[in-house]
Amino acid sequence: MSFDERTRLLIGDEGVDRLAGARILVFGLGGVGGYVCEALARAGVGALDIVDNDEIDETNINRQIIATRDTIGREKIRVMMNRIRSINPNCKLTGYDCFYLPDDDSAGLFDFSNFDYVVDAIDTVAAKVDIIARCKDAGTPVISAMGTGNKMDAGRFQIADISKTSVCPLARVMRKELRDRGITDVKVLFSKEEPVKTGQRTPGSISYVPPVAGLLMAGQVIRDILNEKH
Q1: Torsions phi, psi of 38, nearest 5?
Q2: With a threshold of 0.90, does the pTM exceed it?
Q3: pLDDT in tens, 62-79
Q4: Where would I find the beta strands (DSSP E) of 84-198?
Q5: Are 110 and 154 in contact (CB under 8 A)?
Q6: Looking at CB atoms within 10 Å, which of 2, 51, 104, 172 has the fewest?
């Protein structure tokens, strides 16, 4: 029995073939993006391009799927690629060890029209807006993660158009930036939970919240590809 046999029972041969033929670009391999990649690989997505320039740190262990005592100090991109290969050896992998910025050489590495879907799981507002704008120009579906830090209730996550978001401070900033650029119809994941006030600049996190966000985003991507509704 192949690794995708249970998936095939649920979505049929056509669905499995559709996922195997999909190429998805994921920005960020942290608490959210790592679980996006995990779910896409286990679902049988045929090609993943992943982007991150960070190394695994001890502080990542509480929430990031690739972070263990054994992987501290290693490049996230390499650890994730090895993990995906061990899950789905048929997945075509391309890794980019870079920090994406709009006016940097990194922006020229990607032809967004080559992808069936783009996932934004990074934190930098300028980069998030630029990724969304480039996807819109290319006609490529994109989903963007809003804030998952300082949250305790993973059941408050929703996926909606950016115009329907509320409560989330990052979503408020993104609404303005996208509105100023005239960009509409952007699918995002956000939380309606008020952030916990920690008194620290660095956001707090807990084991189950970012992973739930990542799995919800991956699920949305998979359903959209299967249903061809973008």
Answers
A1: -55, -50
A2: yes
A3: 999 999 999 999 999 999
A4: 92-96, 117-120, 142-145, 157-161, 187-191
A5: no
A6: 2
Look-up of token digits 């650029």? 181
How far from the centroid of its chain's Cα atoms is residue 181's Cα? 23
Q: Which two tokens stand for residue 180?
A: 């100023």
Give the DSSP per-residue string, 18-60: HHHT-EEEEE--STTHHHHHHHHHHHT-SEEEEE---B--GGG
Residue 134: which pLDDT band, with cuts at 50, 70 and 90? very high
Domains for the chain: give ranges and CATH numbers. Answer: 5-148+203-227 (3.40.50.720)
Q: Are the C-beta atoms of residues 63 and 205 closer than 8 Å to each other?
A: yes
Handedness of CA 217, 193, 126, 207 (dihedral sign): negative
Q: Which two tokens stand for residue 140?
A: 């490529």
Short-list 77, 66, 123, CA closest to 100: 123
